[in-house]
Design brief:
With about 80 residues, this protein is mostly helical. It has four helices and no strands. The termini are far apart.
C-alpha cells in the first residue's frame, strides 16, 4: 500500500476519534468521498493500526446507533422553521 494512503487512513481515523465525526462529516472535511473514508477506516486501517481501528469503529458504531435521533431532530427543526414563518 502506498505511504500516502496509509497516512490518509490514519488522519481520517484520528479526525473521527477526536471530533466524534461521522463518515459524511469526515469526507467533507478531507475533501474525499464517503466510500474512500469507509474503505480507509474499515479495511485499510485494520491492517495498519488495530488500536486506532477499534477506537474509530467505536465512534462510528455510536454514530450509527444515534443517526435516527439526529434525523428526527433535523426534521423537527425543518418543520419548526416552516411553521414560524
Amino acid at each position: 500500500m502506498k505511504d500516502y494512503i496509509e497516512e490518509r487512513a490514519i488522519e481520517l481515523a484520528d479526525y473521527i476519534i477526536t471530533h466524534n465525526a461521522t463518515v459524511r462529516r469526515t469526507a467533507k472535511e478531507f475533501n474525499v468521498s464517503k466510500s474512500t473514508v469507509h474503505k480507509d477506516v474499515h479495511e485499510r486501517l485494520k491492517r495498519i493500526d488495530m488500536q486506532r481501528y477499534k477506537e474509530a469503529q467505536a465512534v462510528l458504531e455510536q454514530n450509527k446507533a444515534e443517526r435516527h435521533i439526529r434525523g428526527g431532530m433535523a426534521t423537527k427543526e425543518k418543520y419548526m422553521k416552516l411553521t414560524n414563518k
